[in-house]
Write a structure and sequence with these properties.
five-stranded mixed β-sheet; single chain; three-stranded antiparallel β-sheet; alpha/beta
Length: 415
C-alpha cells in the first residue's frame, strides 16, 4: 500500500495525481487483457485530513485490493474539463465546427497541409469518427477531431488534429501525440477479434497527426520523436520515431488565405488579427466575402464572430447582436464600423481602469504582508474592489496600520 499527501488547495495537482493512477490502472488492465488474464481492480482511496494549525490536505492510499473509485475520478475530471472549457478561447468553436464537415476538412488538408498523398482524396473518402473513439494523451486531453480515411486498395488511415488555439508553444506536443497514438492503437488492437489480429497479414491502421497552431509567436517545439530524444539523430531507424504535420498560422500569408473563400478561410483570416480595432476591420472585410456563400455558412461565421466579440466586450450581448444585424444585411457600413469600434474602445478604457485597480490592490497586499499574514477572504475582498477612490484610501490605511487585523477593521468604513 502507498500513501500520497497533497494540500487540498492544490486542485490541479490532485486532478493530475488521480488521472495518473487512472491511466496506470488502465495500463495494467490492457496488459492483463493482452496476456489473457482477468484484469485486477486497482483501487484508490481518498481521505481528507487537517493538521493542527495547518492547511487541509488529502491522503490518497492505493493498492490492488481496495475497491475501484473510477466514478469519483470521472466526476473530478469532468469538473476540471468544465473549468477548462470556461477559459478556452472562443476561436475553438468556429474551427472545430468547420473542420467537422468532411468537405471543409478536405479543403484544410489540401490547402494548408499539402501532403502529396492527400491531393487525390475525395470528400466521400473521409468519415468523421464518433467522440467515443477519441482516446486521451498523458494529461487526459482528447484529440479535437478524428477522421477515418479510406485510401486506394482498401487501406485504412486515421487522421487526427490537435488544435493549439492558445498564445504559448506546447513543448510536450510530440510526447502527447505519442501517448495518444499508443492508446488509440491499443484500443483498436483489443477491439479486433483475436483470430483476426493474429493473422500474418494483420496490420494496424496508420495514424496521421496534424497540429494546428494559431498563436502569435512562432511554433518552436520538436516536431518529431527523434528530435525529442537525447542523441536521437545518431541511431537512425533503430529508435522510435514519428512526426506530425504542422500548420502554423503565423507562417500562412494573408493573401494565400484569401485566395479561396470558405468559412474556415475567413475565420483564419480574422484570426491573424489580435488587436481589437484591427480585428473589427478584418471581420467587416470577411463579412463581404461570406455573403458570396450560402445562408448556412453565413450563420456559422456570424456565430463565430459573436463568440469572439462577446469575449472582448465583456458579454454585452445586446450591443453585439445589434452590430451583427448591421453586418449581416450588408447595410449601413458606417454604423457597423462606428459601433464596433466604439464598443471595443470602451472595453479598452475599462481594461485600463481594471489594470490600475489591480496594481493598487497588489500594492495594498504587499504593505499588509510586511506586517502579518493575509487570509484568503481579505485577499479576495481587496482584489474584487474596482473603485480606485476606495483603493486609494485602503492604500493609505495599509501604510499606517500596525496589524492586518487593524486594517481589516478600519477598511470596512470605506466599503
Amino acid at each position: 500500500m502507498g500513501v500520497w499527501e497533497v494540500p487540498q488547495s492544490e486542485y490541479r495537482q490532485r486532478i493530475q495525481i488521480l488521472q495518473s493512477f487512472k491511466r496506470l490502472s488502465q495500463s495494467f488492465r490492457n496488459f492483463e487483457l493482452l496476456a489473457g488474464r482477468e484484469p485486477i481492480s486497482h483501487g484508490i482511496c481518498i481521505h481528507r485530513h487537517s493538521r493542527k494549525g495547518g492547511l487541509p490536505f488529502l491522503r490518497i492510499t492505493f493498492s490492488e485490493r481496495k475497491g475501484n473509485i473510477m466514478e469519483k475520478i470521472k466526476q473530478m475530471e469532468e469538473a476540471e474539463k468544465q473549468a477548462l472549457a470556461s477559459v478556452r478561447m472562443p476561436h475553438d468553436k468556429g474551427y472545430k465546427k468547420s473542420l467537422s464537415r468532411p468537405g471543409e476538412f478536405l479543403h484544410f488538408l489540401k490547402k494548408y497541409v499539402k501532403a502529396d498523398w492527400m491531393m487525390g482524396l475525395e470528400e466521400s473518402d473521409l468519415v468523421l469518427c464518433d467522440k467515443e473513439m477519441l482516446e486521451r494523451d498523458y494529461e487526459g486531453k482528447e484529440a479535437d477531431l478524428l477522421y477515418r480515411v479510406y485510401m486506394p486498395e482498401g487501406r485504412e488511415v486515421y487522421i487526427f488534429i490537435l488544435q493549439e488555439l492558445q498564445s504559448y508553444v506546447d513543448y510536450t506536443m510530440i510526447f502527447r501525440i505519442l501517448v495518444y497514438i499508443v492508446n488509440t492503437l491499443v484500443k483498436y488492437f483489443l477491439d479486433t477479434n483475436k483470430n483476426e489480429r493474429e493473422r500474418a497479414g494483420f496490420r494496424l491502421p496508420a495514424m496521421v497527426p496534424i497540429v494546428f497552431y494559431n498563436g502569435q509567436s512562432k511554433w518552436t517545439a520538436a516536431t518529431s520523436m527523434r528530435e525529442y530524444q537525447n542523441n536521437g539523430n545518431i541511431f537512425g531507424d533503430h529508435i522510435l520515431n514519428l512526426e506530425y504535420y504542422l500548420v502554423d498560422l503565423t507562417d500562412v500569408e494573408e493573401e494565400y488565405i484569401l485566395s479561396t473563400n470558405t468559412v474556415l478561410d475567413n475565420i483564419m483570416y480574422c484570426d491573424k488579427y489580435r488587436k481589437k480595432l484591427e480585428l473589427a476591420g478584418a471581420i467587416r472585410a470577411a463579412y463581404g466575402r461570406i455573403r458570396e456563400l450560402g445562408l448556412q455558412e453565413g450563420e456559422e461565421f456570424r456565430n463565430w464572430v459573436k463568440y469572439v466579440l462577446l469575449s472582448v466586450s465583456k458579454n454585452k450581448e445586446a450591443v453585439i447582436n445589434e452590430i451583427l444585424s448591421w453586418a449581416g444585411n450588408g447595410e449601413d457600413d458606417m454604423a457597423f464600423e462606428y459601433n464596433i469600434v466604439r464598443v471595443l474602445r470602451e472595453e479598452r478604457e475599462k481594461e485600463k481602469a481594471e489594470g490600475k485597480a489591480e496594481g493598487k490592490a497588489e500594492d495594498i497586499l504587499e504593505l499588509l504582508l510586511d506586517i502579518g499574514s493575509v487570509n484568503d477572504a481579505l485577499r479576495d475582498r481587496i482584489f474584487s474592489q474596482k473603485d480606485l477612490d476606495v483603493l486609494s484610501k485602503w492604500h493609505k490605511l495599509a501604510a499606517r496600520a500596525q496589524s492586518v487585523e487593524e486594517f481589516e477593521r478600519q477598511s470596512l468604513i470605506f466599503d
